Amino acid sequence: MASPWIVTILCGFLGSTLVQADLSPPAVFNLGPEIIKEQLTQQLKEHDATTTLQKLPLLSAMQGNSARGIPVFDNLVRSVLKYIIWMKVTSANILQLVVEPSTYKQELVVRIPLDMEAGFNTPLVKTMVKFHMNTEVQALVRVEKSESGHAHLNLSYCSSSGNTLRLTLLHKLSFMINSVAKNVMNLLVPALPQMVKTHLCPVIQQAFDDMYADFLRLTTEPIALSPGALEFSFLFPAIQDSNILLHLRARLLDSQARVTKWFNSSMTPLTEFTPDGAPFSLIWRQDLVNAVVSALIPAEELLVLLDFVLPEVARELQASIQEINKEAANKLGPTQIVKIAPYSSPQILLSQDSARAAQRVMLEVFATNQDVKPFFSLGIEANSQALFFTEGDRLMFNFNNISIDRIQLMISDIGLFNAETLKGIMTKILASALLPYENGKLRTGIPLSIAKALGYEDSMWSVMEGALKLSPASS
Predict the structure, then answer these.
(1) pLDDT tens digits for 340-377?
(2) pTM of the prediction?
(3) Residue 277: phi, psi to the nearest 5?
(4) What structural domains and CATH numbers belong to the chain?
């Protein structure tokens, strides 16, 4: 290992370029209107919302309206209902939902169109009298705070207005039957919204609550890092435009399930994560990405028997050292060793559409594997291209095209020399030894099945300023 004072010098020499990411939510799960309506539609199906509509008590609801105490209205109800033997919804469908922003901040409007057919039997005619009903349920989703001060999403309002109700007689019959049917539909105008509120809105509420719970479970599933894991927990929700944003905190665990690092939120404005129209996106802050990389690639020394592993590079190194000190070059034997001691794991630097991995290493050259004192020690700052992509349901990492930004002689036992003269051969050593080692550690990637859980087979990673984003692949 390099002595402490060497590390101190190296830190001061290289520290200026590794800029920490600005604080912001550690992770943000951004749900667009498309995902919200798809998942809510699925939950409505699972909660048998159409069955609820088919069981609406149309006849009893109209009978209940006679309790208004208005004599003229009571007489109308009685005169109409005496002709009705049986009445029910015969078919029901929930049409495509609409999710749109509200005029108020931290609020969404969900519109749920209903399409129904109903019919009644009357002794006045042998066939069923059928009519068509269209209406729309409006629900408001808000960010609210509990008594303890914790923010949560709530479907706080659900109703159907008579203004959205449209009733149409499907088949015209006799004048008398048409008149009865018209009066029945007139009675349904005030009755149906109340039935929707009483019978369907609780189903919508439960469907929304289950959808919200599913989103929270999906975002907080532990991610295996082998060894260790990355765990998320819910911070608070927000609504922006037509999107729901779930802010998450994170923690890193070691192989013994002990917490090694916490990631929390800051006061960075949420507008940094402006929705871009994608159905969903998962955004990881830069320091969270670095923690994952550090867990996969711990800062370990790498010893390379250069003549056995990379003989051509070994010969080029000997030629380069010969330019500095011929006597030293002649001492290089077949067991010559290059020791690469990273000061830390690669640090990912994320900027708009660009990702680099900055690395600070101490590189030492030993004449044989028996030597305890190196010919020289070099402080090197290198960077490489960082690639993020998906294979199946795994996030994959890869480093390419390493280059040396700065190189400095730290200790020399073969006389002083300009370290820049070795920049070319040192770049080859890092590219031939360090990168394959690190990419080998990253080879398996990490499991991340959130896209498939939302119904998307293909997803992609893209780079933002200070963050990494997962979203569905473009079709």
Answers:
(1) 999 989 999 998 878 999 999 999 999 999 999 999 99
(2) 0.84
(3) 95, -5
(4) 4-24+293-447 (3.15.10), 30-144+155-205 (3.15.10.10)
